[in-house]
Amino acid sequence: MSVTEPDTAVTNRAELRTVYREPRPRAAQKVLDHLDVHCRNFIEMSPFCVLSTTGTNGRADASPRGDPPGFVKILDDRTLLIPDRPGNNQVDSLQNILNHPVVGLLFFVPGMNETLRVCGTAEITSDEELLAPLSVGGRTPLSGLKITITDAFLHCGRALLRSRLWDPEVQIDRSSYPTYGQVLADQIAGANAKAIDADEDEANRNQLY
Q1: Which DSSP category does 132 fall into?
Q2: Which CATH architecture has domain 25-166?
Q3: Mean pLDDT over residues 62-68, rounded?
Q4: DSSP state, 53?
Q5: In what order do the strands lie in the sheet with 79-84?
Q6: pLDDT mean across residues, the chain
Q7: Measuring CA to CA, which residue among 193, 182, 96, 196 is closest to residue 145?
Q8: In this predicted model, what pLDDT tens digit does every residue of 145-203 receive, in sequence order?
Q9: Across 46-75, average pLDDT
Q10: For 12, which DSSP code?
Q11: CB within 8 A of 192, min separation 6: which ones?
Q12: What are phi and psi of 200, to 5 degrees?
């Protein structure tokens, strides 16, 4: 005879607050509706961020964005511009934004355990004059994301401390995980691992911009 396990699913805020205590007042007080000098400095030092979007079907997505520090241009205290560099042309994030413009950004700075969280609404721009300052090697991005900020705040460093993200001692030996090409060859019938890896190597050398 099977024993019915108790239902431990948390389904509403009241139940959630039986698991977690109320936050300290400063957790809400620190949330800004604009970029102050500290947020600006963080973004200007950041070479990497994660962009989160949502499709019309409610399916969430997160996509990495990276370039030299300061690649995200601060247009003013409430507006950011992120270049869209060459990729696989699937443009999942951009398609999501066309239908649901609310986005989240998580900025990282190597060596810092704190991260910067930014929320807002995004629009896709192909304005060449606006995008020209984001050019690299004479190549202007095909488009950019112009983000109007609704929330910005510094996130504590505990997640990165627990993960030891910047600690060289925990970096893996890359050979312990299959190459990009091998992973795709295992997932796609008829795909050739060596050909994919060669194609990726060429793209990484010559098509970053």
Answers
A1: G
A2: Roll (2.30)
A3: 96
A4: E
A5: 60-66, 48-54, 102-108, 115-125, 143-155, 79-84, 73-76
A6: 94
A7: 96
A8: 999 999 999 999 999 999 999 999 999 999 999 999 999 999 999 999 999 999 999 99
A9: 95
A10: S
A11: 181, 185
A12: -65, -40
Any idea where the domains of the chain sit in the sequence?
A: 25-166, 172-209
User: On the CB side of 53, how many CA atoms lie within 13 Å of its CA?
Assistant: 22
Residues 6+ apart with CB under 8 A from 157: 112, 113, 114, 115
| Residue that the structure tokens 């099977």 belong to | 2
Residues 77/85, Cβ–Cβ less than 8 Å: no
CA 88 to chain centre: 17
Listed residue (209, 73, 77) closest to 152, CA to CA: 77
Nearest to 81 by CA among 43, 136, 31: 43
Instruction: Tell me the C-alpha distance between 144 and 72, whole Å.
Output: 10
Between CA 165 and CA 170 the distance in angstroms is 8
- When pLDDT is cut at 50, 70 and 90, the band that residue 95 belongs to is very high
Q: Name the residue type at position 125.
A: T
Which residue bears the tokens 């039986």?
18
Looking at the whole model, is its pTM more than 0.70? Answer: yes
